[in-house]
Amino acid sequence: MPGNETGVAGSTLKQWPGHTYSSPVAHPSHYRVMFGGFIESAPTDDQFVADAKAAFEVLVDALVEQQNAGDIRRDDPVLMARFAWAIVHGTAMLVIDGQLPGEAQREVLEHYAAQRIHTSIRQET
To answer: Is 49's pLDDT higher than 60?
Structure first.
């Protein structure tokens, strides 16, 4: 991501997709527990809800910081975060389910997904 590469947001957004893909590959069972079907019962667990909101807020805060720096568009940061989250996590599920055969294909898709996220949120010049 362009812009404030030394700030929290710059480093968070720049590193996020790659980290998000490498983690499920290394720990697929952890990823499934975090994002699997049991989540319907999560709203009854106050600590889970608080932790989930805090984790998502890191991404939203990073987007807001980049918006304030003028590096990305001023759309709704929550919607932007959901879009980025959906692309990254959808791709991660394809990776851990073995739907992307071969390291090269996976790397190309991960790069493409990161580019699509960046293109969708960048500040138009």
So the answer is: yes
